[in-house]
Amino acid sequence: MFDQKTRLALKNGEPDAFRKVFRLLYPRLKGYCKLFIADKEQAEDIIQESFISLWEKRKTIDPLKSVENFIFIIVRNRCLNYLRQKNLEEGKISLDNIQVAELQYLYNLDFKQKEEKSLEELLIQSFQQTIDELPEKMKNVFIKCKIEGKKQQEVADELSISIKMVEKHIAKAKEHIREKLINKFPELVIIISLLID
């Protein structure tokens, strides 16, 4: 999603690069965080703290690697730490919003060998590759609406197409992306749905 120039600008502490990363990733991280944390305020706190952590650790960012992966791992680890703490305090963890197997799968990633790519990196890479495979107009519509966060009417006007056509492109793109990613990551159906909705 972010080019090397943006990643380098973020590493160098440029506020505009940070604002761009925050604006584009915040909605997706909100959905991702909901998988672990039912409490909206707590989820918001975790995301805010994760972005602060990203800013504090910006000098360690490798401009050749995914910033999305970096922040998703920070959020995941903070969610798991929160759940561990909650478990210690209350003696129980509510898993209403996430399948046990899925949570264990994510938790086990912490014990992977360092040379292996994390789940977030693999999923984000596949997500980006799948977007790149879309027909050109469909890809443009999907990126403008779902990645850049533009309104459907704005995209329709910009591309001189009807709003119905924008909706059709988005629906077909989501169906294609969901199918491809679920085939590749069948154990992460919930995360995939949140990633593309």
Give a structural overview:
The protein has helices spanning 4-11, 15-34, 40-56, 67-90, 100-108, 119-133, 136-147, 152-159, 163-184, 189-196. The protein is mostly helical and 197 residues long. It folds into 2 domains: 4-111, Orthogonal Bundle (Rna Polymerase Sigma Factor, Chain: A), CATH 1.10.1740.10; 123-196, Winged helix-like DNA-binding domain superfamily/Winged helix DNA-binding domain (Arc Repressor Mutant, subunit A, Orthogonal Bundle). The longest helix has 24 residues, at 67-90.
Please tag this protein with its features.
197 residues, mainly alpha, Rna Polymerase Sigma Factor, Chain: A, Arc Repressor Mutant, subunit A, 2 domains
The appropriate CATH architecture of the largest domain is: Orthogonal Bundle
Helical fraction: over 70%
Number of domains: 2
Give the overall form: globular
**Given the structure, what is the number of helices?**
10
Task: Give a count of the beta strands, DSSP E runs of length 2 or more.
Answer: 0
Largest sheet: number of strands, sense, barrel closure: none
The CATH superfamily label of the largest domain reads RNA polymerase sigma factor, region 2, helix turn helix motif
What is the gyration radius calculated from CA atoms?
18 Å
Structural class, from helix and strand content?
mainly alpha
State the end-to-end distance.
16 Å
At the first level of CATH, the class of the largest domain is Mainly Alpha
Mean pLDDT: 79
Stretches where pLDDT falls below 50 for ≥5 residues? 92-101, 107-116
CATH fold assignment of the largest domain: Rna Polymerase Sigma Factor, Chain: A
Q: What percentage of amino acids are in beta strands?
A: under 5%
